[in-house]
Amino acid sequence: MSIKGNENILKLVNPTMEYKEQVMNYRKVFLENDESFDGCSGLEECETYEEWIDFDNRLSKKYGKGYTPSTVYLAIRKSDNKLVGIIDFRHRLSEFLLNYGGNIGYSVLPEERRKGYAKEMLRLVLEECKEYGLHRVLVTCDKDNIGSYKTIQANGGILENEVIDEVELSKSGVIQRYWINL
Predict the structure, then answer these.
(1) Which of 41, 55, 130, 150 is deepest in the core (most CB within 10 A)?
(2) Can you list the alpha helix ranges (DSSP code H) found in 104-167?
(3) May I ask the CATH architecture of the domain 10-181?
(4) What angle do CA 12, 9, 88 make, to 5 degrees?
(5) With 0-12 CB in 10 A as exposed, 13-18 as middle and 19+ as buried, what is 180?
């Protein structure tokens, strides 16, 4: 199934207890498959859902002055209320985010990839970025992640440059930096 032509198939919601089991299963799947937890706000480090959803407290302690507030959304398929992805909108760019991580990070369950969900998730969160008052956002990806850079380009991303990944976020060792004008 593809969402092409049906952009109303997903909704972005804030994490609530309703989605606890699905989020913790998402974590389990990603750990078992050695997946990258992009846009998951440290889900891999949390043993419980309650610990994970305490975003501001937990992440401000971890990153100190480098912390930037963000909004985490669950991408829920409307037809069956299933969690298919997680996307994180970082409200401003720290030096680290400017160089490597960008304003937005996202991931999709392995079984739900190649269906257009990432493209739709990014489109929806870009609307939130506009409402927040941003005029452009930075989205980055691993140079070898074809699905991600196609998703970014489909949402208007313009490649600014590629940087050597000195912080080991990517598998290829190169991070592409795309700007999207809102």
Answers:
(1) 41
(2) 117-132, 146-154
(3) 3-Layer(aba) Sandwich (3.40)
(4) 25
(5) buried
